[in-house]
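Q: Here's a chain of 172 amino acids. Please give me its 3D structure as tokens.
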Amino acid sequence: MSDQPTPKRRRFPWGRVVLLVSLALNFLVIGVVVGVLAGILPDRGPRGGARHLDRVSMGLGPYIQALPAGAQETVKAAGGGFDRDARRARISALRNQRRTVVRLLRASPFDPEALRAALADQRSRAFATTPAVQEAFVVAFTALTSEERAAVLERAQEFRKARGKSKGNRGP
């Protein structure tokens, strides 16, 4: 027999790798939680509502959100309501109209007058609620006192900052 010991096979330190990956993931989760609590990461607020208000009211979404609750509901109702079912019905109608436009674009022989009519119908459907929402907002904002109007404007600015739209001169 030989006096030399057999060399030990070195194993890969899987335990250490798993421990380091787990530690990194824990720090990542803790960082996100602390970031949200400290205000570093923006609070996105309720999903979809403000964006939909902006599309329907042509940029007045944060101002409508900043109105007192009763006035806010009146303005929203003027647009036909913003509940999920009503939105789905409007979106479905717009999709069908888009399909009609695409069908007319692919038609042979091409009919430019039919396309113009379909595009006009699509535009009128897309902006059907805008004038009503804007008018209801003007009425609701006019009914406020000057102090309430200042508070609405301040809250709207906070909403805009939270959504990242207050950079420079991007509108009122």
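Q: Can you summarize the key feature?
A: The chain is about 70% helix and 0% strand.
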